[in-house]
Amino acid sequence: xxxxxxxxxxxxxxxxxxxxxxxxxxxxxxxxxxxxxxxxxxxxxxxxxxxxxxxxxxxxxxxxxxxxxxxxxxxxxxxxxxxxxxxxxxxxxxxxxxxxxxxxxxxxxxxxxxxxxxxxxxxxxxxxxxxxxxxx
Length: 136
Hints:
The chain has 136 residues and is mainly α.
């Protein structure tokens, strides 16, 4: 019985964690994608400066503006992804802890033949064998 409950608990925890690795990957790599866009933008600005022979604002402004937009987009993707990942990971942890408590209570109830009551069922105390079950 304990093995069956443990396998079920593991399967549920596995389903809860599905997709979290993709969210974590997006949250951790998108700032680097934005940084790559920034590097490309700065490189293009330097190419324009070299081609024109002078560092005028009109030769530099466009590529630098694009570079800043790429940085902003990378952060705009990363911040919500990391926040969502942290929220979901915490939620899954709480659900896993409640599931573990439930499986422990269920195991105790089934193995004892019903004499051990779950913590929440009878006010936190185990009912003695043969004692009437309080009405709800």
